[in-house]
């Protein structure tokens, strides 16, 4: 007899019935179902295999048996290390929660020389300083910033046009760095600006303090200028000139751009992407229009429906995939963020698709007047007169009062997707999140009814769209893996 | 091919009287006197200074005047020995064991022949022997090794079966070789005991990596390859414990007929579950040890698994896992994965085949284990440099 034993000797899978591990499933298309485990690993199975699996009838000899076993959807007598690995993956997925708030948004002023119809919060650019943040407010806000236990702190300046209050930006940066000598956080700064008023003084400040620039680029010149009117109708030209200057001074990768989708954008996905390629960006985030502020007031939110936006999104995504398959690397950022959840054990830094929601514990907003909001969208809602997500004011309230306020805790507690009706049994839940502010704004309730939710609709369609593209087009999986793993 | 241990060394009467010893060989006649009694002087054409503990002469040495101390005359296969090498002299049996060669970056110490796995393709088949003396011998050798050595390796058998003596050897490597990397080849199972992982971490070795094989994402397939029930679970728990204590871990996968079918799934498993490991090595099969006995079960022509290899490397690389291909030949690989191929075969094992004649990339290629003569890919052919932009 050989001193080596055959493989069957080691296969304990037939010794006893298997134990299914926590699993959720949702129909993908036709006969295909998506299964996810608690760590967000997924598998697609035909209905017959799914049925056999959940009824305890799947045989170890079936190909789907080993795939379910390898991805920790079931255990059998062979091995119980799946529990250790699942626990570790779940911990990894939730680890960022312990860090608490990492992104701190300072609204330096509401003044702006643009008058974009979709903008939620800006005021005409006159010389009145009543919409500027004061140094006193900034100091109080910084006290709160450093109360966050997060080892990484990012301070982002927003407006209005944030650069119209450059002295305050300088004041906050210098004061934050002074405090950080003892705080020792990983401290970073971002200025969100339309670049129209960029000058050497601002660039010099950015260079000195490694500040990232985040700007707006809505697409080709005519579309951009139509979306973003300003005196002289030269927003696009100024943005492009600003991008070039900032890159030359700070470095190519120190300048990012975001686009806003409007009704006028919907037929122009390719042109918008081409504009980003022409301006030498490595990717684009194809963003939905947010329902807040002027966007709702002017009815521009209702001016196109979800399915029209999804058509725009997938047209853009498929164009980007064509480019990648032909050898040109270019990333769609929203997909990349979702794919990080689907294809890696890690979580993206993005705060808008988290469970529990990222309100205040992912990102928090210090408004020009000292009011503290749970998110950027919360202050936009407030500009429409709804102060539901105002946590308090830096001059009146302590860190504890703000973070333990009902305005925060209640929506936060209802934002655990794992326990929300409609989400709890959805296969996409491990990749999804909760957006209590959106649901409050659109349905008057932080949880909302998911079948009526544009948030749910949109994300479900994207999850499905990403999986089917991986199934249908050879080469897409590899591209998606690359996107998912870029930091 | 270089011989590292053997007999046929003739020791003279004073050497016999001195008995066994672990010594460093030197060629410098001007060595300081306090060191000479513990060193072996490699006799060359020049002067023969006094005071050395041993005098080592090559097989070609023609006897002339008496040497001023105990003499060992090497058999021809050891004529390569040179300055800085560390050897164990065993006059009683006429044996010599080469423990460290200064001129090579690859120096491996076999810590024990015992192992709790029984891998189908083991290149160093385990034996149930009491071989604790090996650890003592290595402990003696560590202080003699050139402090400029780049890397040493502890292998086996399963080194961790030595328990505290294994930890002591790691301590020794840290203490005597403070700038030398330490690579430990282990099956990882012992580290399922968290205390061992913790103790290893507490040594705070400056540059240690534990190389641990994982052969499948399916437990029973791994257990079959290593011929041990429950090995997969222990190995995975061992890896988790090591990383829990911030010890660096390398995953080693041998490519053969039993591991190739799940190779891409294994890559996905690693990316998903063990993404924090520090290196993944995908290694061609070595035609030695048990592999010869199980060749029919294990052999697959590497040219037939290149698609799986390319896919697995891609999955690992895209997930930012540092990945290398060992023991494989460039002419079989798609150029897109050449950058992952390393020249990994120890110089004393590395050879080329007749088909390699005229190959322009030989110097970049890992070549073959000398044992590969038994069987190697039918697709080996001389390759050209990238000769045109479109190539």
Brief account:
The complex is a heterodimer of chains A (487) and B (391). Chain A has 487 residues and is an alpha/beta fold.
Search tags:
A: 487 residues; alpha/beta; 8-stranded mixed β-sheet; 3-stranded antiparallel β-sheet; globular; B: 391 residues; Glucose Oxidase, domain 1; TIM Barrel; 7-stranded parallel β-sheet; 11 helices; 25% helix
Describe the protein's topology.
The complex is a heterodimer of chains A (487) and B (391).
Chain A: E1 19-20, E2 24-29, E3 32-36, E4 42-46, H1 47-54, H2 63-70, E5 74-75, H3 81-94, E6 103-107, E7 111-112, E8 123-124, H4 135-145, E9 152-158, H5 166-183, E10 186-192, H6 200-208, E11 212-216, H7 221-227, H8 235-250, E12 255-258, H9 269-278, E13 283-284, H10 293-297, H11 306-325, E14 331-332, H12 333-343, E15 363-366, E16 371-373, H13 376-383, E17 390-393, H14 399-403, H15 406-413, H16 436-443, H17 454-472, H18 476-485
Parallel strand pairs in A: 6-9, 6-15, 7-8, 9-10, 10-11, 11-12, 13-14
Antiparallel strand pairs in A: 1-5, 2-3, 3-4, 15-16, 16-17
Helix pairs in contact in A: 4-5, 11-17, 12-18
Chain B: E1 5-6, E2 10-11, H1 13-18, E3 21-26, H2 33-36, E4 39-42, E5 54-57, E6 71-73, E7 86-90, E8 95-100, E9 107-110, H3 132-141, E10 151-155, H4 164-176, E11 181-185, H5 194-202, E12 208-213, H6 219-226, H7 231-244, E13 248-255, H8 263-273, E14 279-284, H9 290-293, H10 295-298, H11 306-318, E15 323-326, E16 350-351, E17 368-369
Parallel strand pairs in B: 3-4, 4-5, 5-6, 9-10, 10-11, 11-12, 12-13, 13-14, 14-15
Antiparallel strand pairs in B: 1-8, 2-6, 3-7, 7-8, 16-17
Helix pairs in contact in B: 8-11
């Amino acid at each position: 007899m050989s001193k080596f034993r055959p493989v069957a000797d080691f296969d304990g899978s037939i010794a006893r019935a298997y134990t299914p591990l926590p699993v959720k499933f949702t129909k993908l298309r036709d006969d295909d179902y998506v299964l996810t485990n608690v760590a967000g690993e997924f598998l697609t199975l035909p209905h017959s295999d799914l049925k056999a699996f959940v009824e305890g009838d799947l045989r170890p000899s079936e190909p789907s048996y080993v795939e379910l076993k390898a991805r920790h959807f079931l255990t059998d007598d062979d091995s119980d290390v799946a529990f250790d690995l699942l626990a570790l993956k779940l911990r990894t997925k939730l680890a960022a929660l312990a860090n608490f708030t990492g992104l701190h948004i300072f609204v330096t002023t509401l003044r702006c020389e643009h008058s974009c119809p979709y903008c939620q919060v800006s005021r005409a650019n006159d010389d009145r300083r009543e919409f500027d943040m004061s140094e006193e407010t900034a100091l109080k806000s910084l006290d709160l910033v450093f109360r966050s236990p997060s080892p990484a702190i990012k301070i982002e300046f927003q407006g209005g046009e944030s650069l119209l209050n450059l002295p305050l930006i300088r004041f906050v940066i210098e004061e934050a760095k002074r405090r950080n000598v003892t705080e020792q956080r990983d401290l970073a700064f971002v200025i969100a600006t339309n670049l129209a008023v960029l000058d050497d003084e601002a660039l010099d400040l950015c260079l000195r303090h490694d500040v990232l620039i985040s700007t707006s680029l809505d697409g080709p010149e005519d579309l951009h200028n139509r979306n973003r009117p300003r005196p002289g109708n030269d927003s696009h030209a100024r943005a492009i000139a600003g991008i070039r200057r900032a890159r030359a001074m700070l470095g190519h990768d120190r300048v990012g751009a975001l686009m806003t989708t409007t009704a006028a954008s919907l037929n122009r996905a390719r042109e918008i992407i081409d504009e980003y390629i022409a301006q030498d960006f490595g990717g684009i985030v194809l963003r939905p229009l947010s329902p807040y502020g002027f966007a709702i007031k002017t009815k521009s939110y209702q001016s196109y429906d979800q399915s029209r936006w999804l058509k725009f999104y997938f047209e853009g995504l498929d164009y980007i995939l064509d480019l990648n398959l032909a050898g040109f690397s270019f990333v769609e950022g929203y997909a990349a963020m979702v794919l990080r959840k689907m294809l890696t054990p890690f979580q993206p830094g993005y705060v808008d698709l988290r469970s529990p929601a990222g309100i205040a514990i992912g990102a928090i907003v210090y408004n020009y007047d000292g009011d503290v909001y749970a998110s950027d969208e919360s202050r936009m809602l407030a500009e429409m007169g709804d102060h539901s997500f105002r946590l308090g004011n830096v001059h009146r309230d302590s860190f504890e009062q703000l973070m333990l306020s009902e305005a925060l805790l209640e929506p936060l507690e209802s934002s655990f997707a794992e326990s929300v009706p409609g989400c709890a049994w959805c296969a996409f839940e491990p990749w999804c999140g909760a957006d209590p502010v959106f649901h409050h704004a659109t349905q008057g309730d932080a949880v909302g009814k998911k079948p009526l939710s544009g948030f749910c609709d949109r994300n479900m369609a994207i999850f499905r769209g990403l999986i089917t593209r991986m199934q249908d087009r050879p080469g897409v999986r590899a591209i998606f893996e690359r996107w998912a793993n870029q930091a | 091919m270089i011989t590292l241990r053997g007999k046929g060394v003739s020791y003279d009467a004073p050497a016999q009287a001195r008995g066994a010893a672990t010594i460093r060989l030197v060629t410098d006649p001007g060595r300081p006197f306090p060191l000479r009694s513990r060193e072996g002087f490699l006799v060359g054409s020049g002067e023969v200074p006094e005071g050395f503990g041993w005098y080592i002469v090559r097989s070609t040495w023609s006897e002339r005047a008496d040497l001023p101390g105990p003499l060992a005359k090497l058999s021809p296969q050891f004529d390569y020995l040179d300055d800085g090498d560390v050897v164990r002299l065993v006059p009683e049996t006429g044996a010599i064991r080469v423990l460290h060669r200064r001129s090579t970056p690859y120096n491996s110490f076999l810590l024990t022949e015992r192992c709790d796995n029984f891998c189908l393709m083991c290149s160093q088949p385990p034996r149930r022997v009491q071989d604790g003396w090996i650890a003592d011998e290595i402990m003696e050798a560590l202080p003699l090794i050139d402090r400029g050595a780049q890397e040493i390796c502890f292998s086996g058998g399963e080194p961790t079966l030595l328990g505290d003596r294994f930890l002591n050897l790691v301590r020794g490597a840290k203490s005597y070789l403070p700038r030398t990397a330490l690579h430990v080849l282990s099956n990882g199972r012992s580290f399922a005991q968290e205390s061992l992982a913790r103790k290893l971490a507490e040594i705070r070795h400056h540059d240690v990596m534990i190389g641990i094989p994982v052969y499948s994402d399916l437990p029973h397939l791994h257990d079959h390859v290593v011929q041990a029930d429950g090995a997969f679970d222990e190995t995975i728990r061992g890896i988790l414990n090591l990383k829990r204590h911030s010890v660096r871990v390398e995953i080693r996968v041998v490519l053969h007929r039993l591991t190739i079918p799940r190779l891409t799934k294994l890559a996905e498993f690693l990316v998903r579950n063990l993404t924090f490991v520090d290196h993944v090595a995908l290694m061609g099969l070595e035609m030695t040890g048990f592999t010869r006995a199980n060749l029919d079960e294990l052999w697959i022509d590497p040219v037939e698994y290149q698609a799986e290899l390319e896919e697995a490397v891609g999955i690992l690389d895209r997930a930012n896992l540092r990945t290398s291909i060992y023991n494989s030949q460039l002419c079989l690989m798609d150029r897109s994965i050449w950058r992952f191929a390393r020249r990994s075969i120890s110089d004393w094992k590395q050879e080329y085949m007749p088909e390699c004649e005229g190959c322009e990339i030989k110097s970049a290629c890992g070549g073959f284990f000398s044992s590969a003569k038994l069987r190697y890919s039918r697709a080996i052919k001389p390759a050209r440099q990238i000769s045109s932009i479109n190539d």
